[in-house]
Amino acid sequence: MSKTPTTARLEARISADLHALLKRAAELQGRTMTDFVVAAVQDAARCVIDQTDVIRMALADQECFAQALLTPPAPTQALERAYARRRKLLRSE
Predict the structure, then answer these.
(1) What are the sequence ranges of the domains in the chain?
(2) 3-state SS class at 40
(3) Residues 6+ apart with CB under 8 A from 32
(4) N or C, which end of the chain is more exposed by having fewer CB within 10 Å?
């Protein structure tokens, strides 16, 4: 029976300047460099995914809105009653 790993390894070649920058930032937060980098990458990934989801949802919502404008649904009985009450209230003023 093979075990699936619970972690994966990620390697990247970076410049010495970037390494020093990351090391300093990690030290300022009291983290290991690995912890700092993993947290930063995770935040960046979530941000990209969230932005993409918002854009996709916005496009889907736009299509739904446009479709509702082009082919509005028939009014329900509750809407017709509400509209009748509104007309009655406006006439009594």
Answers:
(1) 16-92
(2) helix
(3) 26
(4) N
